[in-house]
Write a structure and sequence with these properties.
The protein has helices spanning about 35-45, 60-65, 85-90, 105-115, 135-145, 170-185; strands at about 5-10, 15-20, 25-30, 50-55, 70-75, 80, 120-130, 150, 155-160. It has about 190 residues and is α/β, with parallel strands linked by helices.
């Protein structure tokens, strides 16, 4: 799990009280590396020890003691990708398309298998700017339905085209968001939970 040192002040007159390190994990589905890069930037913002795992790596055991789960995936055809979307990409990748990474399951599949929990969560997606859909609200809804507590509004990170790359500044924005998530969860306030 992610080890993020946090300091909680008991009040302004006493010395800082050190809490146990926050355990955070960033889970992603990424076909062309964009969502994985955003996940790594979020983890960097969360701090040293934050773990970044693909949906194949993020088993129930790996996330069981997480204080914060940040989950993200790409948007295709106006929604969060699904196994059927991925199968279509595998069968007909498109002219000039780079090879997709289909070695891990779709985030929807991972969410369906995720056990109920009470950890904090945040959701993100990678998307093309415009009216082409969002996946992060779907992720947030699925996590909330399983009992997880929302720490922040879902975020979308923009790619230039279907295969990327990310727009300039998006990785820096993801890292800033990771820092904000760490502060919110350390304070136990949550953005929506």
């Amino acid at each position: 799990m992610i080890e993020l040192s946090t300091i909680l002040l008991s009040n302004k007159h006493r010395a800082p009280v050190y809490a146990r390190a926050m355990r955070a994990v960033v889970v992603y589905e990424s076909l062309w590396g964009n969502t994985a890069a955003v996940g790594a930037a979020i983890a960097a913002g969360l701090g040293e020890g934050a773990r970044v795992l693909s949906t194949a790596q993020a088993t129930a055991a790996e996330i069981a003691d997480a204080d914060l789960i940040v989950a993200g995936g790409p948007v295709f055809a106006f929604r969060l990708s699904a196994e059927s979307t991925r199968e279509g990409i595998r069968q007909q990748p498109g002219p000039g398309a780079p090879p997709p990474d289909l070695s891990h399951p779709a985030l929807r599949t991972w969410l369906d298998a995720l056990p109920a929990g009470t950890a904090w969560f945040a959701a993100f997606d990678t998307q093309i700017r415009g009216p082409f859909g969002q996946g992060a609200p779907t992720i947030a809804k699925a996590l909330a339905a399983k009992g997880y507590r929302q720490a922040a509004e879902p975020q979308g990170f923009v790619v230039e085209g279907k295969y990327g790359p990310l727009l300039p500044g998006e990785l820096e924005r993801a890292q800033r968001w990771g820092r904000q998530l760490g502060r919110v969860v350390a304070q136990g306030t949550g953005g929506n939970g």
